From TrEMBL:
Lineage: Bacteria, Pseudomonadati, Pseudomonadota, Alphaproteobacteria, Sphingomonadales
Alphabetical UniProt keywords: Cell cycle, Cell division, Chromosome partition, Cytoplasm
InterPro entries in the cross-refs: ScpB_csome_segregation, WH-like_DNA-bd_sf, WH_DNA-bd_sf
NCBIfam families: SMC-Scp complex subunit ScpB
PANTHER family in UniProt: SEGREGATION AND CONDENSATION PROTEIN B (PTHR34298)
Coiled coil segments of this chain: none
Protein name: SMC-Scp complex subunit ScpB
Amino acid sequence: MTPPDDLVRAVEAVLFASPTPLTPSQIAEHLGEGADVRRALGTLADHYAGRGIALVRRGEHWHFETAGDLAHLLRRDREDSRKLSRAGIETLAIIAYHEPVTRAEIEAIRGVQVAKGTIDVLMAAGWVRPAGRREVPGRPLTYATTAGFLDHFGLASRRDLPGIDDLRAAGLLDPVDLSIEVVSADDSD
């Protein structure tokens, strides 16, 4: 096995020492101009594939993390997992699929009011953030998902969210919705 070149080693060291995920341009700031950071990241990703530590890309950010199948070995205390309410799950899904979205838009899609605490819980979890204000009368606040949302759900980007066919195949669509689709299809015959 040939030893890694100096650039690969330098990129590895920068990522290892960083407390937060980094973009290729942030890594390049440490290495100087002309560094082929993307090639080095590819080499490192191949090197760490299947090992106890993985080099992971979330959006445009890269970081090291424990391999998912070994994470249980590092837990000392059992985490108390709290389940999101149905309203929380629906609100998170609407924000993820429609971002940036206002509270009024979330309520229009859900058909009921969103309790202030619902969005607060999602923000406290680090999955939702304020994304600015809409340029309409009243300038309502918009919400979007965060890199923490992508990381928690193992997504590289929002494009990796499941589509309608994926949700149907997984049996996650409400049977009432499926019945309406069947009836609509029968009416068009």
